[in-house]
Amino acid sequence: MPNALSWTKAADETICRMRAAGETWAEIGRVLALSRNTVIERGRRLRAVAPPRVVMPHEADDGLTDPNRGPLRAGHRLTWGLLSDEPYPAGDRF
Hints:
mainly alpha, 4 helices, 37% helix
């Protein structure tokens, strides 16, 4: 059976500080030379949380999210990648 890990105050502070700064569990594990899962478990016990994500609202999508909209025309900028591997042409040729 593996030996129990003794958590130090410095390691606990590192977990809380890095997680509050938005670092991933994997990065915190690398710094502490521990596995990601070990750090996740300790972080949960310490209630170390990441900062809330800032969600930027999308610009107007011209009704594309409307479930009752008609089909998009051939060559529309949103469907172009389905039709061709080429980049969308400059200017509005369609």
